[in-house]
Amino acid sequence: MFGVTHQPDEADILPVARLIIVFVMLGSFALVFAELVRQSENMSMRPLPTASRCGDATGMPCPQRAL
Q1: Cα separation of 25 and 17, whole Å?
Q2: Is residue 55 within 8 Å of residue 62, measured between CB atoms?
Q3: What are the pLDDT digits (tens) for 16-61?
Q4: Measured between alpha carbons, how far is 25 from 30 in angstroms, rounded to an integer?
Q5: Taking a C-beta distance cutoff of 8 angstroms, is the pair 60, 53 a contact?
Q6: How open is the CA angle 46-52-53, to the nearest 5 degrees?
Q7: Whole-angstrom distance, CA of residue 55 vs CA of residue 53
C-alpha cells in the first residue's frame, strides 16, 4: 500500500501549469500597467509656461522687466 510509487501524469500537471500561466500573465499585465502609469505621471509634470506661473490666477506677482 505504501510502497507504490505514483508517477505524475498529465491530469496532475495540468492544474499546476494553468496556475503558473495565470500568474505569469497577471504579473506581466501588472508590469505593463505600472509602466503606463509612470509614463503618464512623467508627461503630466511638464513645465508650465511663465504666463500661468504668475499673475492674478496664481496669486504671485509677475517679475517686471528692466527698462
Answers
A1: 12
A2: yes
A3: 999 999 999 999 999 999 999 999 988 887 665 555 566 666 667 7
A4: 9
A5: yes
A6: 80
A7: 7
What are the b/e assignments for 53-64, b being 16+ CB within 10 Å? eeeeeeeeeeee
Q: What is the Cα–Cα distance from 17 to 22, expressed in whole angstroms? A: 9
Residues 9 and 11: their CA atoms lie apart, in Å, by 6
What span, in angstroms and rounded, lies between the C-alpha atoms of 56 and 61?
7
pTM over 0.85: no
In contact, 54 and 63? CB cutoff 8 Å: yes
Amino acid sitting at position 16: V
First-residue to last-residue Cα distance in the chain: 102
Q: Which residue has cell 509677475?
A: 62
